[in-house]
Specification:
It contains 7 helices and 15 strands. The protein is of the alpha+beta class. A 7-stranded antiparallel sheet has the order 2-3-4-15-14-9-10. Strand 9 and strand 10 form a beta hairpin. Helix 2 runs antiparallel to helix 3. It is globular, with a radius of gyration of 20 Å. The two termini are 22 Å apart. This is PPM-type phosphatase domain-containing protein.
Length: 296
C-alpha cells in the first residue's frame, strides 16, 4: 500500500491480513497525516526455517502537510510513502519508503513492478533486491533528466528499504533523506559507511607564498558525490527499530538525537508522531515525514 496526502483505506484489512488505518490530527493549525499499520500472524506454522513471525514487524507513518499555512513556506505536495508486504514463495519481503513528491509515484511503481517478481529464486532474492534498487535509482535519475528536470535531480530525495524475512534490511537513500537503525540504543546511519572518504590536500602557491587547502571526495569526482548507494544491514537481537525520514527531520537533529527521542516509545505510530512534532518545534524548514519500523 502506498500513500500520498491524506489517503487511506478506512481501516480495512488488506489482502495480506494487515490492519491498515488512516486518521487526521489537527492541532494549532498544523495538519498531520497519521497512518498506522500492524502485521498480523498469517503465516504457515509448518515451515521449519525461521520465519518473520518470530520477529514481528510493526510500523507507523507520519507526514506533516499544509506547512505553508502556519510557517509561511510555499505550498508544496506532501512526501510520498509506501509500506507493502509480499510473499515470494517462502520468503517475506517488505518495502518501506519515504519519497520526495516529484519522484515518489514513479519510483514506487517501478519498484512494485520489478521487486516483487514471483519468479525470483529464493536463494537469489537478496542479490536481486540490491540490483533492483540500484536500477531504480538510476532509472529515476534518467527520467528526471529526460523530463528536462536535470536541475531538480540533485534536489530529489528519498530513502527506502526492503526487509527480507525480518533478517536483513537492504537500504538506500538519495539527497538529504536518510535511513537510521537503532541497535542497542546506538544510532547508525545505514548508508553512511558506504559514502566516499573526504580527502584534504594542501598546496603551496610558489608566487604568493600562501597555503591553500582543497577538499575533494576520494575516488570520486564532484558530479558523483551524491550518487546513491545500497547497503545491507543484518537484523539481530540488538536491532530495535529503523527510522526512515526526510530532510526536514535531519535538518534539526542528528541520528542519535532522533533515536534517543523515540527509543522509549514502543508504539511505532506514537514514535513517528513524536519525531515529526519535535522537528516542527525546532522550526524545520524542510519536508517533515518519517516512517518507523520496529522489530519486536
Amino acid at each position: 500500500m502506498y500513500h500520498k496526502g491524506l489517503s487511506g483505506n478506512g481501516g480495512k484489512e488488506d489482502g495480506n491480513g494487515n490492519d491498515n488505518g488512516s486518521i487526521n490530527i489537527n492541532s494549532s493549525g498544523m495538519a498531520f497525516r497519521v497512518n498506522f499499520f500492524l502485521t498480523k500472524d498469517g503465516h504457515d506454522k509448518g515451515v521449519i526455517r525461521k520465519q518473520s513471525w518470530m520477529t514481528p514487524i510493526s510500523y507507523g507513518i507520519q507526514v506533516v502537510e499544509n506547512r505553508y499555512f502556519f510557517s509561511g513556506l510555499d505550498e508544496s505536495e506532501p512526501d510520498f510513502t509506501i509500506a507493502q508486504r509480499e510473499q515470494i514463495k517462502d520468503t517475506e519481503v517488505w518495502l518501506f519508503g519515504v519519497f520526495d513528491p516529484q519522484i515518489g509515484d514513479r519510483i514506487t511503481k517501478y519498484l512494485q513492478t520489478n521487486l516483487f517478481d514471483k519468479e525470483f529464486k529464493q536463494t537469489r532474492i537478496k542479490r536481486r533486491t540490491k540490483e533492483t534498487i540500484k536500477k531504480a535509482n538510476m532509472w529515476i535519475r534518467t527520467k528526471l533528466r529526460e523530463g528536462k528536470q536535470a536541475h531538480e535531480t540533485q534536489r530529489a530525495g528519498c530513502t527506502y528499504v526492503t526487509v527480507i524475512n525480518a533478517e536483513k534490511v537492504v537500504a538506500t537513500n538519495m539527497g538529504d533523506y536518510r535511513a537510521v537503525v537503532c541497535k542497542d540504543g546506538v544510532a547508525d546511519q545505514i548508508c553512511e559507511k558506504h559514502h566516499p572518504r573526504i580527502k584534504r590536500r594542501w598546496s603551496m602557491n610558489l608566487f604568493s607564498g600562501t597555503l591553500h587547502m582543497r577538499i575533494r571526495t576520494a575516488g570520486s569526482n564532484p558530479s558523483k558525490r551524491s550518487e546513491p548507494v545500497v547497503a545491507v544491514e543484518k537484523i539481530d537481537s540488538d536491532t530495535e527499530f529503523v527510522i526512515l525520514a526526510s530532510n526536514g527531520i535531519w535538518q534539526v537533529m542528528n541520528n542519535q538525537e532522533a533515536v534517543n527521542l523515540v527509543r522509549h516509545i514502543n508504539h511505532p505510530q506514537e514514535a513517528a508522531e513524536c519525531l515529526a512534532k519535535e522537528a516542527l518545534a525546532r522550526m524545520s524548514k524542510g519536508n517533515i515525514s518519517c516512517l518507523i519500523i520496529r522489530f519486536d
